[in-house]
Protein 1
Amino acid sequence: MNIRLIRISICCVSALLGLFWIVLERVVAPNLSAQDGLLFFLLFGSIAWVTTSPAFFRRYVGEATPESLGAIRIITCAIQVLMTLWLEDLPSSALLPIEIRHSMGAMSYFYNIPGFESFARSQSELQIFEWITALILFLGMIGWKTRIVIPLGAFCYIILGGIVRQYTWFYHTGLIPVYVMVVLSLTPCADGLSVDRLWNVYRGKTVPVSDEASAIYGWSRYACWVIVALSYVAAGLSKIYKSGFFWWDPANMKGIILSSTLDPVQANWEVALKLIHAPDILFAFLGITGMYGEIAVGLVLFSKIARQILPICMVMLHLGILFLQDILFFDLIVLQLIFYDFTEIRQGIKRWRGRESINVRKNEPNNNDLKDVNDRQAREALPTATKGENKKLYYPIMVATFAAIMIFVWFRHIEFYPITSLQMFSGYNNSQKIGYTKIIAHYESGFVTRLYPDTIIHAPMNTRYRLTIRGCILDNPKGVQSCNKLLNTLRRVHNKTAIPGQKITKFEVQSWLWDFNNNPSDPDYGELVKSYTMQVEEE
């Protein structure tokens, strides 16, 4: 069938599905949104018209090797292994009171499963689940039973991340790699750099040539790029949508940076406080490069030069966020590696070291790594999707589907875990006044100091229960009750292992306000405006 006719048919079917959605909403399910359904299908049809074009593939997608896709799998799964074992502490969440839980999207469905509540409140069971999740992700990294462990690893991490987030808020660290894993689940990512590949070679089965490029791996790699690139674009556009094109206003930027430093969610470096007297142009520069840099990441989908430069820029951006806002986006820093072709790098190193002859035939077996077979066998071993004309549009349509979903989620500003529109730091405040809270611990010895709650219970990352703690200083009885419950839990957990004299007798929550424009040199960084002393519960 003519490719143009197929493309037209896809667009027509998309339009018909949109009209069918409207009829469904009017006749069968009035609770559905006719506008949303029509918008999504028209969006999908428009993107599919572009991605199914042969010219689009030649100009922007290109071919890739099994090794390139395998490297993306390794990078993504390695990130999630470290997130699971290093940055998240799932078992500790069982110590937190259920009164501080927040609604967390899809997690509500899991709590309807009998026994899930008791599972979520058991430290030992959560510890086992954390280890199992890390093991599955590790197996995905090395590529053993890849077709099973990649989607299973993504599913397990969604549960793990949801349990932790429900005690804090819907933070975004660790989600983008999960999205990439969902994409990898639909691709032949085990064809390169995997135990599955080596096992097939050992059993005498044919496998694709590891360093021979083809369209199927090019589209698979491009689908992963789409997830990461559109995530950055969504984050940048959210700032424009909520705060306008001048979100980078120096007053707003200074407020964001200083408030993140004085009420930190991870580190306590206070580097930004040393910049209080810095000129406004510095903060404007940080804002402009941050917001428009995120939007510019979309160029990696269309330019090889952008794929060489912008990932490095994003690493620098995240390092700046780490030092100036005390927030570590470990996953996004490492994930930039997927934009680089490791097959080209490896081949370049071989040529540089003189270990590979230019005239070596590609169909000659590679006895060093036992991976390559002759060209005829490799073509026979390729997935069916690359051989049948009736299936060659699978990957362009997959790319269009994921792109349409991400654009639709951003347009509708959907926040339903694990789905997010990435509205990070998109607010605007040019009052040049910032508010922040402190938790003050009073010890038996009489010693009084500021304390960060994650030093006692470190379940989630990128947060220190700030939403719950702020409830103590708001005129909201439910918020005060939740905050008091958390403070008593922290006190009880700390005192179980504290030596005499080091036990905490009470916590005090303080609300501070700093006018950094009129009092930039204030050594106290503002003044105390409100204080709350916890009500100690009987143990």
Protein 2
Amino acid sequence: ADELLRTEKFQSIEEIVDDAGVELFLIGVPNPFTFQYATIMRGKQQAMMDIIEKPALVRRIIDKGTEISINQSIAFARLGVDALYIGETFGGLIGPRFFEEFCLPPLKRFVSTLKQYHILIYLHICGDSTKLLEPMANTGVDCIEPLDPLGGVVVADAKGRVGHRVALMGGVNTISLAHGTINEVVEDCKRCIREGAPGGAYILACGITGTLSGVPPDMAILTLSLEFILFYPFMQL
């Protein structure tokens, strides 16, 4: 981490932390390091074949990616960043068996190493993560997201299964947010709050932001959503 902190990139991050760290919640994003890193190094199709034909190679690639990301994240933590975002794009695609074999060990290693720096960590697995909720919670992260309804994830189901172990974030249908009426968005926010808020440890957020790309935001909808985020503990839904 010492060497990274001397680079121009992390010196720029330090300036951001110094300028905005008091007023804003700052999130650092290290390189992908689980199976997603193998797809970067080997290509998506080849990496999918490798988990069957060359599992030892996949593990070596992941180990290297994990070392890199841990080093980056220690640098983030030492600069005073508040939280770390980590993700596995292919988690739902490879399924529970391969997720637990190839992704869970490096995720646990990452979390256990970074926890000593007292930094929050949240795990993003988009798409259908329904069968991965328990393994995601088993990583030891503070929060899992995005509870993508477009992938079939139900906030109430996630709350009942792992909400006592880990904070939850997400669940709002991003198609509705991008193209729906204000009333549709409000009702969807209410649904998520009813399902996720009991007992606390729930953050209202989009199921996934990619579907918002290129869509001009309706500021009224976004403002209403923000009001729900700020005031939902006091609302009668």
